[in-house]
Amino acid sequence: MEEKNSEKNSNETPHKMARLAWPKAKYGAIIAVIIIIVINLIYYQDFFLSFFN
Fold first, then answer.
1. C-alpha to C-alpha distances, 38 to 14, 15, 19, 28, 30, nearest whole angstrom
2. Cα-Cα end-to-end distance for the chain
3. pLDDT tens digit string along 21-51?
4. What is the distance between the alpha carbons of residues 13 and 16, in angstroms, rounded to a whole number?
C-alpha cells in the first residue's frame, strides 16, 4: 500500500509550482522550432540571398 502512495506522490506537481500556469508541451516545441528557424535564417542570410542574385 505504501508503494502505491509514494508512486502517486512522485508524479504530482509540487505545491508551490501548482499555482503557475504551465503551457502545453506542444506549444513549447513549436516555439522552439520557430526560434531555431529564425536564428538560422538570420545567421545564413547571405547564403539564402545568393540564390536570388
1. 35, 37, 32, 15, 12
2. 72
3. 777 788 889 999 999 999 999 999 998 888 8
4. 8
